[in-house]
What we know:
The chain contains seven helices and two strands. It has a two-stranded antiparallel sheet. The protein has a domain at about 85-175. Helices cover about 50% and strands about 0% of the residues. With about 180 residues, it is mostly helical.
Amino acid sequence: xxxxxxxxxxxxxxxxxxxxxxxxxxxxxxxxxxxxxxxxxxxxxxxxxxxxxxxxxxxxxxxxxxxxxxxxxxxxxxxxxxxxxxxxxxxxxxxxxxxxxxxxxxxxxxxxxxxxxxxxxxxxxxxxxxxxxxxxxxxxxxxxxxxxxxxxxxxxxxxxxxxxxxxxxxxxxxxxx
Length: 177
């Protein structure tokens, strides 16, 4: 997800990335948009790990245990994973970063942005059917944001964020075939 957003901090070593606790007892890496060595742009190998305080987002996706002997990792596909990809603070921030990358690296048209987003997320070109469906989605989201009072630029940005988040939450992005 960080690579798609163009925000993966590839620096080796450095201090552990701390996490925070929400009032309801979940643990998360702050997604503040910073790109420092203590930000959410670092790989999870740099996260501070405590067995008693697992990072909620990673635990949802079967994070490896911190116990000394782990011969096999469990793998589950559960509803909470889809909900995390749509509602977690981390997924929302990464989708926003991904959309900003697409907007800055592509042409000005919706079709150009969709093509680039597909290529970054899936490493392939879009089919004509996918392009048509994606354009309809982005344009309908833009209309909804405008109806809710957003200006054209803000509506276009929000619709692109929604589209990028849908790509990141898709099976094609999450699973290696």
